[in-house]
Design a protein that fits this description.
Blueprint lengths: L1 H23 L21 E2 L1 H4 L1 E8 L6 H21 L6 E9 L2 E11 L4 H9 L4 E6 L6 E7 L3 E8 L6 E7 L1 H13 L5 E5 L2 E4 L11 E5 L4 H13 L6 E9 L1 H30 L1 H23 L3 E2 L1 H30 L4 H33 L2 H32 L5 H7 L6
Helix pairs in contact: 1-8, 1-11, 7-8, 7-9, 8-9, 8-11, 9-10, 9-11, 10-11
Length: 434
């Protein structure tokens, strides 16, 4: 028995340490209730756009010049480029994702950009708009226009600023990857003696005449620009040239005040639900109810610590999933306590009823949680971003709740279930028919 009680004490200490970590790792200033050592790293909760405020942008991608087999790769490349671009501006945790929409019989490829903390739409659009679209176009047969080629900034490996050794004019050298080098070789081979124009953001910046086939994947941009302008161009190209053109079709701003209210409402809902659960458990289950509340507090501390350490992006849907997971954690305790009551009705001693009740309730808890976890996985796999946030937090809560119910509650109850006197029977006998 002393080993059980020692384990229960160690688990309690562990729970207190986890709770202290959640408290101490908050970056916000705190009242001097508890000392906060300097070695504890400040880890804020990662809040989604709907909680922290920011800008939601939707772009339509023009993939009309791409083959169907190349669209997926181009959209993924576009996502990576835009994510790199907004990261350069110091936006905290941008969320950039591709989406395919069907409008009637037409299919539309979209880029969804969430910028937490950016509530100035013009600033947000400028971040994306500053990403250049690099294109190579060849001379039309009649020499009056240029024709788009498959070679775009998607294949750009890096841009380098150099200077002409004679006139000391800035030159921007472009190095393509393996596929881009082959495309460039083919284009120059087929257009010897003709013009091949280099377009940036829809405007020609260099229109050289091809003298010979160029292999090796190295192209040069020469033009009437200063060294400073050339340096900026190199930086923009290296941060990512858009593989396909995009058009802004929707903007939405979530104010910081609205985000703070959503967080406050979520915390309030969680506290109210916890208080109601605590009152019910203490009144109905007495000592086991107190143990359940203690386990639930440690469960909450574990979940909050995991939110910080993983980290989990908390949205309004995620907070809803967390609150529902509290119900799942409570449900496991209810199954255990009701089973213990049945064993007590059968005449078992309190310590034996606790051991047997946990053992027999485990199978019901396991099956119920597994089926719920499967549902959470399906929601995460097939759901949209908001549904995925709910499913992730909910699924994580199911796993942690099984740990808190089976491990924490079991050791705490076994640690206090000694003797069989009237006082102990009173603490365990609520709801048991005589």
């Amino acid at each position: 028995m002393w080993k059980v009680r020692l384990t229960a004490v160690l688990l309690l200490i562990f729970g207190l340490l986890v709770g202290y970590f959640v408290y101490a790792s908050n970056p916000e200033p705190k009242a001097a209730l508890l000392p906060v050592p300097s070695f504890i790293k400040k880890i804020p909760f990662k809040l989604g756009l709907d909680l922290s405020g920011g800008t939601h942008l939707i772009y339509r991608a023009d993939v009309s010049l791409l083959k169907d087999i190349d669209i997926s790769d181009s959209m993924n490349s576009l996502r990576d480029v835009i994510e790199r671009r907004v990261n350069l501006f110091g936006v905290a945790e941008p969320v950039v994702q591709v989406q395919e929409e069907r409008l009637g019989g037409l299919k539309e490829n979209r880029l969804i950009v969430d910028l937490p903390g950016v509530t100035d739409v013009d600033q947000a659009v400028a971040m994306i708009g500053q990403t250049p679209l690099l294109e190579f176009k060849t001379e039309n047969e009649d020499g009056t226009d240029f024709v788009s080629t498959p070679l775009t900034g998607r294949y750009l490996e890096r841009a380098i600023l150099e200077f002409d050794q004679t006139a000391y004019q800035p030159i921007v050298s472009l190095q393509f990857d393996k596929d881009g080098a082959e495309l460039f070789r083919q284009i120059t081979k087929e257009n010897v003696g003709k013009l091949v124009a280099i377009y940036l953001d829809g405007a020609p910046i260099s229109i050289p005449v091809v003298r010979e086939e160029i292999s090796g994947g190295l192209a040069q941009i020469t033009g009437d620009f200063t060294p400073k302008e050339a340096k900026i161009l190199v930086g923009r190209l290296n941060s990512g040239a858009l593989p396909v053109p995009i058009e802004l079709i929707s903007t939405q701003t979530v104010g910081a005040t609205l985000g703070e209210k959503a967080v406050a409402d979520g915390v309030k809902a969680g506290l109210i639900s916890f208080v109601i659960l605590a009152i019910f458990f203490v009144l109905w289950y007495r000592l086991p109810g107190i143990i359940a509340i203690l386990s639930l507090i440690i469960y909450i501390a574990l979940m909050l610590a995991l939110f910080k350490l993983i980290p989990v992006t908390l949205t309004a849907a995620g907070i809803a999933g967390f609150i529902i997971s509290l119900g799942v954690a409570v449900d496991a305790n209810i199954l255990i306590f009701e089973r213990i009551k049945e064993e007590l009705r059968g005449g078992l001693k309190i310590s034996d009823a606790v051991t047997t009740g946990f053992k027999r309730a485990w199978f019901s808890i396991r099956d119920a949680n597994l089926t719920t976890l499967i549902a959470a996985i399906i929601l995460f796999w097939f759901g949209t971003s908001s549904i995925q946030g709910f499913a992730l937090v909910f699924g994580l809560g199911i796993i942690v709740s099984m740990l808190s119910a089976i491990t924490l509650s079991r050791y705490f109850l076994r640690g206090v279930s000694f003797g069989n006197g009237k006082a102990m029977k009173f603490l365990f006998s609520s709801g048991i028919s005589k």
